[in-house]
Write the structure tokens for this entry.
Amino acid sequence: MGLQCFFGGTTIQTLRMAVIPASSSSRFIFGKPLSKTLTLNSLSRRCSSINYLKKPPFTLLIKAFSSTAEQTAPSTESVENRMVKPQWKAAIDFKWIRDNKDAVALNIKNRNSNANLELVLELYEKMLAVQKEVERLRGERNVVANKMKGKLEPLERQKLVKEGKNLKDGLITLEEDLLKLSDELQQEAQCIPNMTHPDVPIGEEDCSTMRKMVGSPHEFSFPVKDHLQLGKELDLFEFDAAAEVSGSKFYYLKNEAVMLEMALVNWTLSEVMKRGFTPLTTPELVRSSVVEKCGFQPRGENTQVYTVEGSDQCLIGTAEIPVGGIHMDSILAESMLPLKYVAFSHCFRTEAGAAGTATRGLYRVHQFSKVEMFILCQPEESESYHEELIKIEEDLFSSLGLHYKTIDMASGDLGAPAYRKFDVEAWMPGLGRYGEISSASNCTDYQSRRLGIRYRPSESSTNPKKGKGKLAPTKFVHTLNATACAIPRMIICLLENYQQKDGSVVIPVPLRPFIGGLERIAPKFPQDE
Amino acid sequence: MGLRCYFGGTAIQTLRMAVIPASSSSSRFIFGRPLSKTLTLNSLFLRRNNVNYLTRPPFTLLTKALAATAVQAAPPTETIDRGVVKPQWKAAIDFKWIRDNKDAVALNIKNRNSNANLELVLEIYEKMLAVQKEVERLRGERNAVANKMKGKLEPSERQKLIEEGKNLRDGLIMLEEDLLKLSDELQQEAQFIPNMTHPDVPIGEEDRSIVRKMVGCPREFSFPIKDHLQLGKELDLFDFDAAAEVSGSKFYYLKNEAVMLEIGLINWTLSEVMKRGFTPLITPELVRSSVVEKCGFQPRGDNTQVYSVEESDQCLIGTAEIPVGGIHMDSILVESMLPLKYVAFSHCFRTEAGAAGAATRGLYRVHQFSKVEMFILCQPEESESHHEELIKIEEELFSSLGLHYKTIDMASGDLGAPAYRKFDVEAWMPGLGRYGEISSASNCTDYQSRRLGIRYRPSEPTSTNPKMVKGKFTPTRFVHTLNATACAVPRMMICLLENYQQEDGSVIIPEPLRPFMGGLGLIAPKFSRAE
């Protein structure tokens, strides 16, 4: 990669030169890094023939950088520094990455990630060096400023004024470099995936291990239909009209399918609420920055995300995004944790690149209803909450009488945010295969470092040496998300598993109180009669 | 308007010239003229026509669609091919009726505060008819020439006929091109013409609207009342602040009992309306922009209420009326299927552009909300009684929730283009201290069906001409469409919270909703305040 070579070469040398202790003739030393660092600017592919003096003050931004890991600004304000990319900063622990280089490199390999760790570390070292040099120059500038406070010969003062001006010019240039390095570092480092739980099987999807298998495929004494045929005969869906009105992979639900969706949402919410989760309905349009912070890519050719024209808003692909954002940029009290939410939303996905995959009927659609669980907790507890989430899923699916297996997904199949992911695949007799109906991920601090969600440990758990009344330092929460019910996939399972010889479909007992006591979806018109 | 002058001038004359009966010999000359003249007519449409006519797609196909005047041009999936033509779809507007009822239409345009240009529409229409007639004439002439060439001919005579035929063909191509453009221009202008207005609708601005009915009276409170925003804050029901960060202003999360209340309202409303014979639906919330237009909404422009998706022709729906209206698009229903009554649940998305400064506190005006919407497709003779049925259902629903409300027959100046008549319901919101619109029921007669292409075929015995041959299909007619809010969830939540608030800060759930909320009868504060 061209960038890497560049960093390995000229600019590193430039810096070494700049770090040479400067005598009072620092003016000369600045002559050099100034011109050299300008070539460094060209890294960011924008020619920097900018009037440095007209720029907004850098000190504010530098402040954010020196504390490395801060959210730069609330997203509502980020519009103003549009020239800077990316517009938000993940609180990535670069020092940790450097100190655990081999583990991170192995993880990147295991996750099939295209993150460039070498480049990240080079940028990081470079940034640290520039940071150090900036500190040194500031010190020197202060020295000059102090000298000028006393009585001076006019000649001496003139010399100091000039020296101060040179120092200032040099600082501005270096601070500019620092900004760009920091942005470049962000951009590269954001590609690094979360670390992986030690028990996760290493390899591609076929290495995934089965954690649990419940039930067995239902035996049918008659030829089974798939949900599409059942839906047609029972007048439950309308795909053809939706193709005209909206496009392919859209649908209307009709008659009992509407009641079934409402019942599934209602039953799932009430079951999960019983377990101490706070119910939510969420915005379905969110700023694209929030989508990014949750670890999704709202842009690019193969994005799954619908973007609104003439705005920075996207349609959510999952309620995980708005629920993840609900505590964005805030510090929670330890006593508030864990926060457990169960959110109902519609989800929208372009399904770009999904052509050719199993897309029959309701299996892969552009819009669907979903009930999603989300937990924010202390780091020590995320693993046990992950177990809790998969257990809730299993309880729900078992009480609907499904045959399913729970899978510990292999490293190569994990998205960047997940530390570990359990999928549930249920038997769909009409489609004649298992299909994914839920996914439970522990994202540890991957999302919270991007969303800026911290908590302040209570006094007792902090270092006893610390003075009383002094606040404990904040830590990042861990986040977990898990599907409670993805409605269309669940409708597939219920229709295909509970179909009867006479063409009707039996409603599982737990859902009946939520569907007006309905026990069976019967054909509206007797067939062939 | 420049366009109008132009039409009134040169081009009309050009046509008159072209209509002079042509002798077989001099027809070449006659064509020389309209050809050049009609080229200037082409320039009307701001595209210079340096096109090789021979490499063009065949016009006959398109002309066919035009000759049948009022037919949907093509299914929307195919319109991509003819991207040069605007608009991409055609409303089956009855131009002859408009011409024959010019005064009534003009008065209606005025009463509706519409900026439709009726004069322009009629001028383009007459012009189009004239070009159409001329095209017919030239086709006949071309056929005559073709027939002459079938017999034995002197070589010089044949050569002459060939040349004549070629000239006729060139002339036809030009005129057919003009016809296409005139037809598009006519569509574009005519689509601005609003629906006619029910004779009982009060004429004038919103203040002329008439109260049809008033139910109940404002509840008396013996304590200082709160608005829904304060109640929601104290009962931990909403989160507007987080939504402002995550999504923008006027977005919100519902939380705790508000979630159950939303689902309870949807479920109760659906089941009540289903009891009355409506088929429940859940609809797509992304639809093609053409469907939005066909329902009478404007998906483009500065002040559009419609969110569009980047790099696609899809929009987010502002109401389920759009996807439900589209469900029978481009189809002919049998009379026995009518009326079709749907009750649809969807989320709705609105930009609320230009709504800054309007009453926007809390849940009243938001970018996204849940709504249950009723929609009826019926025979024209029955739309008025179905309109009454819809407003009656709304009133029954709101009464059984114990609301104080009034039903309003909206004045002509306040009707959207598709509505023939509109009844709004405004309910008392004690916290906001005013009445607020909670529903709207519109009879759109055939305004939407003429755009969406929804017809039905009357059954034989009733409406057909007895002279007609048995077994022959009766001609199709356009259905009438009606839409009405069954429950706009956030507005209903405002009503319930503000009307049923108690002195202790709790809110009572109306009886009918309780079975749909797990028996919950009261939303109580989570933490006792100041204790």
